[in-house]
Amino acid sequence: MTRRCLHGAIAVLAAIGPFAPVADAFAEVGSKMDPVDMPALAGGKVALFSPAARANVVVFFRADQERSVDALRQLAGCEKELTRGVHWVAVISGSASPADAKAAASGAGIRMPVLVDEGDKLYDKLGIRMFPAIAIADGKGVVQAFEPYRQLDFADAVKAQVRFVMGEIDQTARDRALDPEASKLPGQDDPSKKAMRDVNMAKRLVELGQYEAAVKQAQKALEQAPVPAAFPVLGMAYAKLGRCADATRMLDQAQKLAPDSAEIGAARALCAGK
Questions:
Q1: Cis link prior to 226 (omega < 30° from 0)?
Q2: Contact 5, 178 (CB under 8 A)
Q3: Roughly what angle, to the nearest 10 degrees, separates helices 191-207 and 211-224?
Q4: Candidates 3.40.50.620, 3.40.50.300, 3.40.30.10, 1.10.10.920; CATH matching 9-178
Q5: What is the pLDDT of residue 189?
Q6: pTM of the predicted model, to two decimals?
Q7: The domain 191-270: what is its CATH number?
Q8: What is the distance, to the nearest Å, from the Cα of residue 126 to the centroid of all Cα atoms in its chain?
Q9: What is the b/e burial string over 81-100, where b = at least 16 CB atoms within 10 angstroms of the residue's CB?
Q10: pLDDT at 185
């Protein structure tokens, strides 16, 4: 299959698209979907997920959003490639226009049924606030992975997540697909510049609510070089995770090395009294 996008992990996070940072853009891995049948745009009802499937892919999209339409186009190819053992559905809000959703799905060429989330019960349960977003669950409806939209390598990222949930690839292979080796960038041989790129990625991950990943990215930065900017980001990520002892330790370092950082006060407030 022809690759649709160029690799570049830095550009991936930078190019997710303009939207206000949302800390809880989607639920954590481990969230469980209810085994329900939902109304389909084509008529009748369709199961949200299949117990017989090794991976259940649920696509949340908005028909009036360019990012969502592009995601559906890319997912049409994924859907054709990943058929055995995969249950695909798309879900729109109960307040969305059925006509617009039908047109978007038809234009993108997806074959998966489009379901209507009446009352937005599923959206609220999973905390979906950013579109498009992909939830990948096992046969019990337990979410094993989330993949937000990215302008670069979106289809490859989704396929890697699905294959990981199906047990076809291990975590190392999945991580390699999600964070592909980028072309050499200016200043790449400078440890401090490389570390700051990792810090910026960590900040972005915090904004997206991916706190564990943010911790790993900030720690990676410190392995490159002792950049002061990594400590307040680590402190905020730990505070969001409720690991206040670790957060305090990082924030104390940040107070010494990067006292002007806005994250320090905000992170300390999260851990106040804990």
A1: no
A2: no
A3: 170
A4: 3.40.30.10
A5: 59
A6: 0.59
A7: 1.25.40.10
A8: 13
A9: ebeebbbbbbbbbeebeeee
A10: 52
